[in-house]
Design goal:
0% helix; mainly beta; seven-stranded mixed sheet; single chain
């Protein structure tokens, strides 16, 4: 079982940056791929980025390539999402998720979800 806790959200101006963190705990926390989804107001949840258990392989949604980067520190059991050049359309609740394999990170099945952290980009 894996527990996930996000942090790092906030209010930022257009063009700014934030680094989101997701700390994992639990007996299987080192065995999962992890990643990020987001849900904007009035929209469906969408995949943002994910990283394999060993941190070697990543997967990013097309709309964040070149702006967002997912990384992982296995010594800290933490995954990060560096977000740069933020736009108003990036405003959303960002959720951390875990799955038993990178291939499952886009569509599941998922092992766990975090509670989410709000990112608001103001113009």
């Amino acid at each position: 079982q894996v527990q996930l806790v996000e942090s790092g959200g906030g209010l930022v101006q257009v063009g700014g940056s934030l680094r989101l963190s997701c700390a994992a705990s639990g007996p299987t926390s080192s065995s999962v791929a992890m990643g990020w989804f987001r849900r904007a107001p009035g929209k469906e949840r969408e995949f943002v980025a994910a990283i394999s258990r060993d941190g070697i392989n990543t997967d990013h949604a097309d709309f964040v390539k070149g702006r967002f980067t997912v990384t992982r520190d296995n010594a800290l059991n933490t995954v990060y999402l560096q977000t740069n050049d933020l736009k108003p359309e990036d405003t959303a609740i960002y959720y951390c998720a875990a799955a038993y394999g990178l291939a499952a990170m886009r569509n599941g099945p998922f092992a766990s979800w975090g509670q989410g952290t709000q990112v608001t980009v103001s113009s």
